[in-house]
């Protein structure tokens, strides 16, 4: 029984990796079920049962997440190009979906991203991905003592001001510091 479960998890992991590598492609139910080597009906049931969202919803969230990163960090790409890459037929449809999900227009997000609604919006995507992560036991972990090593760190952030990064830290200015790790 454990082998069958591992086989299903491996198939689903393969599908998630395929989605990640091919967000620009047509990721329909038929092509994704072929990656998993299931019938499309069985695949859809298994995907929804495993991840708690439909295949279509998962792909939609993955594309929206990529689009939001591009808005925040890729100034050279237009909002229209980002909308088309996210699978929307028109920029206004993308803008409506973006505003509904994040409470900000794409342009407003680009100028001053509000990361809290962003984190909430992608909770289902992150939860889905975590369901197939490998579980570690204490037997898998080795703790080693190493001598202190001197390192230099140089942080660089874009000159354009932003409110905060997804991790909650500030993204303004540049700092340089030396520290000792031990």
How is this structure best described in words?
This protein has helices at residues 2-21, 29-36, 40-51, 55-73, 79-85, 91-102, 106-111, 115-121, 123-130, and strands at residues 149-155, 175-181. It has 182 residues and is mainly alpha-helical. The protein folds into two domains: 2-130, Arc Repressor Mutant, subunit A; 149-181, no CATH class. Helix 1 packs across helix 2. The longest helix has 20 residues, at 2-21.
Instruction: Estimate percent helicity.
Output: 40-55%
CATH homologous superfamily of the largest domain?
Homeodomain-like
Taken from the alpha-carbon principal axes, the silhouette is flat
Q: Can you tell me the residue ranges where pLDDT is under 50 for at least 5 consecutive residues? A: 167-182
Largest sheet: 2 strands, antiparallel
The top-level CATH class of the largest domain is Mainly Alpha
What's the quaternary structure here?
single chain
Helix and strand sequence: HHHHHHHHHEE
Tell me the strand order in the biggest sheet. 1-2
């Amino acid at each position: 029984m454990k082998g069958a479960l591992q086989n299903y998890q491996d198939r689903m992991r393969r599908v998630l990796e395929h989605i990640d590598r091919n967000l620009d492609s047509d990721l329909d139910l038929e092509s994704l079920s072929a990656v998993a080597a299931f019938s499309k009906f069985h695949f859809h049931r298994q995907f929804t049962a495993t991840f708690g969202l439909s295949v279509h919803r998962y792909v939609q969230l993955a594309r929206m997440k990529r689009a939001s990163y591009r808005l925040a960090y890729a100034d050279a790409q237009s909002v229209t190009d980002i909308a088309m890459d996210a699978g929307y037929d028109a920029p206004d449809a993308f803008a409506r979906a973006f505003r509904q999900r994040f409470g900000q227009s794409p342009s407003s997000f680009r100028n001053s991203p509000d990361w809290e609604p962003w984190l909430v919006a992608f909770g289902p995507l992150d939860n889905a991905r975590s369901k197939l992560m490998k579980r570690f036991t204490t037997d898998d972990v080795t703790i080693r003592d190493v001598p202190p090593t001197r390192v230099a760190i140089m942080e660089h952030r874009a000159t354009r001001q932003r409110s905060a990064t997804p991790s909650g830290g500030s993204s303004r200015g540049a700092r340089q510091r030396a520290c000792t790790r031990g």
